[in-house]
TrEMBL record, chain A:
InterPro entries per record: HODM_asu-like
Protein name, as recorded: DUF3445 domain-containing protein
Lineage: Bacteria, Pseudomonadati, Pseudomonadota, Alphaproteobacteria, Hyphomicrobiales
TrEMBL record, chain B:
Keywords in alphabetical order: 2Fe-2S, Flavoprotein, Iron, Iron-sulfur, Metal-binding, Oxidoreductase
This protein's name: Uncharacterized protein
Transmembrane segments: none
GO MF annotation list: 2 iron, 2 sulfur cluster binding; metal ion binding; oxidoreductase activity
Domain of life assignment: Bacteria
Keyword Oxidoreductase: yes
Residue stretches making up the Dimethylamine monooxygenase subunit DmmA-like N-terminal domain: 5-126
Source organism of this protein record: Mesorhizobium wenxiniae
Keyword field contains Thylakoid: no
Residue intervals of the Dimethylamine monooxygenase subunit DmmA-like C-terminal domain: 137-180
Matches recorded under InterPro entries: DmmA-like_C, DmmA-like_N
UniProtKB/TrEMBL annotation, chain C:
Entry-linked InterPro entries: 2Fe-2S_ferredoxin-like_sf, 2Fe-2S_ferredoxin-type, 2Fe2S_fd_BS, Beta-grasp_dom_sf, DmmA-like_N, FAD-bd_FR_type, FNR_nucleotide-bd, MRET
Species of provenance: Mesorhizobium wenxiniae
Domain 2Fe-2S ferredoxin-type: 234-321
GO molecular function annotation: 2 iron, 2 sulfur cluster binding; metal ion binding; oxidoreductase activity
Domain FAD-binding FR-type: 5-110
Gene3D superfamilies the UniProt entry points to: 3.10.20.30, Nucleotide-binding domain of ferredoxin-NADP reductase (FNR) module (3.40.50.80), Translation factors (2.40.30.10)
Protein name (Swiss-Prot/TrEMBL): Ferredoxin--NADP(+) reductase
Protein's UniProt keywords contain Transcription: no
Cofactor(s) this protein cannot do without: FMN
This protein's UniProt keywords: 2Fe-2S, Flavoprotein, FMN, Iron, Iron-sulfur, Metal-binding, Oxidoreductase
Length: 346, 198, 321
């Protein structure tokens, strides 16, 4: 049967929507009624059927539209995809990982055949059928990282591991929550996280780095992160902040439900076998408030989380300008009754 | 300097003599004083195989003091850009064991380090000491243009004209601080301009 | 959360004596599938069921990372060690089923290097077998200097010479051939990275000379798995699990903890990776630290121990395990 891919946009007329099944599988990130940073890393193992963890690399109904949006971003700004010269081998590692995972998870849409280093990749949703030599960049239309990440949902950062640190030395970043690959490429783990408030003081990054540098092959890990976005816009890059920033001033009590989106990142971490690097896919899920509040538990909990968020965090996540309007809107859906523990809807 | 900064903001040290025979110095203006201070702590013969590239700026008052150290090679040039081909050539022919010392303005340190990184030197093995002006090199995150010698907060991008918040977030690869539009959400908000990077 | 590795069920597909001290072992997957891809410098931990005892020893993978039909390791027989290498030499035969860990790399190439300068001593050649194969396939720039006692003990010297010709230089102790280290280190182009694997004396010598000649520490890479040393038996109290155990003469502290049913995380079992770092709650006696993980300060202050390689002499030791 396979997935029915939606025709939709993440810019201009913003026709993005989630189907009812997709609302239920949304990775709601709050397991309790408040939020603070924590080293919330856990093993990236398969989850229940019908959840975003049914496969370790998730493909969903937005796949084709997201890939079209990525192509538009790259045409406008090729600096969103960069790889320092020593990262080509890691790019091949990533190509292997994503082809294998997508082919195993969605055989009706993707097929990978391998005969030694002669590979054939069929991507039916995007109409691609390419034969190439694994390890030979001249046999692909792009470098290996760019080739496969033009066909995979989410942003991808490839980290080189050396001197006990992780270095952001390659990436495909077109759906980012306000950070610039072009500026951050080449930085180490602490440097690229430098602008994040509060977490350094809590020692979060020191502990997270220790964990990440010890990630073993065959044992990926994951965590959830979140922010909010006005309009279902994937490309909220700092590069275009002057273009999307004004959206934040357009939130009114009447349009909260349609305009304000919870944006959840499912970040996973995988050891790459040939390069000994780490790849860090950042898979972005969007849900508009009207969709989210169809689950009463999520509505009550999100109200409490946003209401009680420390100001520094609200500011860092860019919520300040519309926070009051949002909290007021959500408060009408919160009768004060308790919420059950855990992420899922009741 | 801002009282509270962030981890990507470069931290500069004090130059100190390193082991090995080959020492390459790049400095501008008051950066010369960091070299003469180092010389006071250096063992005999330290400069016998040293190379100093110096951009004196408006006057040449430190030139004599550096020449007095009797380095194997001494060069003075009118600007960093004019010294860059020489620096690149020196690095291309250098061997492991060469030590690099950078002293002076942040712009000079950043750009010389950028050339060194491209030549294969790891940034952690470079000695730096900040002297003189705190003026910043800014990359506009929107148009990617670099604006030199920024002293104000906010600052205007010399390429696209957006009003930029000058952040402490710094890229060694670009040798620049990040500038992000300060009034993107409402262009009519114009915060006062202060001169803070002197 | 545990960060240990996944296990692989393998069968010994070949056992090949290489010279009077070294034997090579080949492993394939029992299910016939390909083994996981690895990077040059990676090791696996081999589980040896030796009667009542389980030994877990790390060995570098020495095959080409491009061929994952089988893994190969080379084991040098150590007649005075704790018996792991003797077990491999005496008991492991083709067809035997064994369990090994997923590959882990704690001696990775720095792929930014303009040139890779490799120095090997004796059996320390094994990680370089894989690294040179990896680099050669990518057109990488490397040079290998290999010292051995005699030509007949120059494990794989002929293979390497054959494959890489002038990129390999051999030095034989019995012919008084020595690496001209200072000259070698002073003539390397900027952007060179140095890798050394061999006896601890050699590693120390190379690191010292590199530092004196101005090589930044980030450019000097070394792998030295300390083998756990035998020693006098001692008693340990494990405070968290409420057990008291005795560490035998030929047993490491980590092995004794595991034998009591407590499983601290580990990766290298050689004092390098830091995984099994254990807090000391109380002690009356003296530590014998053999690891390369804790700082000198940490060794002095007696609050931490690496149970994979370090021991204790004295009246009592209480660990947070």
């Amino acid at each position: 049967m396979g997935i029915t891919f939606r025709k939709e946009t993440f810019r201009d007329d913003f026709t993005f929507k989630n189907s009812p099944e997709h609302i239920r599988r949304f990775p709601f990130p709050f397991h309790e009624d408040s939020y603070m940073y924590a080293v919330n890393i856990e093993p990236h193992v398969l989850g229940p059927k019908g959840s975003v963890l049914e496969n370790l690399i998730d493909v969903d109904e937005h796949y084709v539209a997201e890939m079209q949006d990525r192509a538009l971003v790259l045409a406008e700004d090729p600096l969103r995809c960069q790889s320092l010269p020593h990262m080509t081998l890691a790019g091949w590692d990533l190509l292997e990982l994503l082809m294998e995972q997508q082919a195993v998870g969605y055989p009706e849409h993707f097929t990978l055949s391998r005969d030694g280093d002669k590979w054939r990749w069929i991507n039916r949703p995007l109409g691609i059928d390419d034969s190439f030599t694994f390890g030979d960049v001249s046999t692909l239309p792009y470098g290996p990282m760019e080739y496969i990440t033009r066909q995979s949902q989410g942003d991808f950062c490839i980290l080189d591991q050396r001197d006990g640190n992780l270095w952001m030395d390659a990436g495909m970043v077109t759906t980012q929550a306000d950070w610039s690959l072009d500026f951050d490429i080449g930085m180490n783990f602490f440097e690229w996280h430098a602008p994040v408030p509060l977490a350094h003081e809590k020692g979060i990054f020191t502990r997270a780095l220790k964990f990440l540098t010890n990630i073993q092959q065959g044992k990926p890990a994951r965590r959830l992160n979140w922010t909010m976005t006005i309009n279902p816009r994937l490309d909220t890059s700092p590069e275009n902040y002057h273009k999307w920033g004004p959206d934040r001033a357009t939130v009114t009590p009447e349009n909260v439900g349609d305009k304000v989106h919870l944006r959840v990142e499912l970040q996973s971490f995988w050891r790459l076998p040939r390069s000994n690097g780490i790849v860090f896919p950042i898979r972005c899920y969007l849900i508009k408030m009207d969709e989210l509040v169809t689950q009463p538990k999520w509505a009550r909990r999100l109200h409490r989380v946003i209401r009680d968020l420390p100001d520094e965090l609200a500011n860092y996540k860019g919520l300040t300008r519309y926070r009051r309007t949002l909290v007021e809107w959500l408060s009408k859906l919160d009768d004060g009754s308790p919420t059950s523990p855990g992420f899922g809807p009741d | 300097m801002a009282a509270k900064s962030i981890i990507s903001r470069p931290v500069y040290g004090t130059l100190s003599p390193q082991p090995g025979k080959h020492h390459l110095f790049v400095a501008d203006a008051e950066g010369a004083l960091a070299i003469t201070d180092l010389a006071a702590k250096a063992p005999d013969g330290f400069f016998a195989d040293a190379h100093i590239i110096f951009i004196p700026g408006n006057d040449s008052k430190h030139v004599a003091a550096l020449e007095a150290l009797k380095p194997a090679q001494f060069y003075q040039g009118p600007s960093f850009a004019s010294a860059l081909p020489r620096l690149k050539q020196t690095l291309a022919n250098a061997h492991m064991g060469l030590h690099l010392y950078l002293a002076g303005t942040e712009g000079l340190i950043g750009q010389a380090m950028q050339a060194a990184l491209e030549a294969g030197i790891d940034h952690t093995s470079i000695q730096t000491e900040h002297r003189g002006s705190l003026a910043r090199r800014i990359q506009c995150v929107h148009c990617k243009g670099i604006t030199e010698n920024v002293t104000t907060q906010p600052a205007t991008c010399s390429h696209c004209g957006l009003l930029l918040l000058v952040r402490d977030h710094y890229s060694r690869r670009l040798a620049a601080f990040q500038g992000v539009c300060i009034n993107a959400e409402d262009r009519s908000e114009i915060p006062p301009t202060e001169e803070i990077f002197r | 959360m545990s960060t240990g590795t996944t296990k692989l069920d393998v069968v010994v597909s070949d056992v090949v004596p290489v010279n009077e001290l070294v034997t090579r072992f080949h492993f394939r997957r029992r299910d016939g599938q390909l083994l996981p891809t690895f990077s040059g410098g990676a090791h696996v931990v081999v589980e040896m069921r030796d009667g009542e005892r389980t030994r877990l020893n790390p060995y570098s993978l020495m095959g080409s990372p491009l061929d994952t039909r089988e893994y190969t390791i080379s084991v040098r027989r150590d007649d005075v060690g704790r018996g792991g290498s003797l077990f491999m030499h005496r008991h492991v035969r083709p067809g035997m089923e064994m369990v090994i860990s997923y590959p882990v790399n704690l001696f990775s190439l720095d792929l930014r290097a303009r040139k890779h300068l490799m120095l090997a001593g004796g059996i320390g050649i094994t990680p370089f077998m894989a690294q040179t194969a990896q680099l050669a396939a990518e057109g990488g720039n490397f040079e290998l200097h290999y010292t051995c006692r005699t030509a007949s003990l120059g494990t794989y010297a002929d293979v390497l010479k054959d494959r890489y010709d002038r990129r390999v230089r051999l030095y034989h102790d019995d012919r008084d051939e020595r690496i001209e280290l200072d000259r070698l280190l002073s003539s390397q182009p900027l952007g060179t990275h140095l890798y050394v694997c061999g006896p601890s004396g050699m590693i120390g010598w190379v690191r010292d000379r590199a530092a004196a000649l101005g090589w930044p520490t980030e450019t000097v890479h070394f792998e030295h798995f300390a083998a756990p040393q035998p020693g006098a038996p001692f008693d340990v109290t494990l405070a968290v699990s409420g057990k008291t155990i005795r560490v035998g003469e030929q047993q490491s502290l980590l092995e004794a903890i595991e034998a009591a049913g407590v499983d601290p995380p580990y990766l290298c079992r050689g004092g390098v990776c830091g995984q099994c770092e254990t807090n000391v709650i109380a002690h009356d006696g003296k530590f014998i630290h053999n690891d390369h993980w804790l700082s000198e300060e940490e060794h002095r202050c007696g609050k931490k121990i690496m149970p994979c390689v370090s021991r204790f002499e004295g009246r009592s030791l209480v660990l947070e395990r």
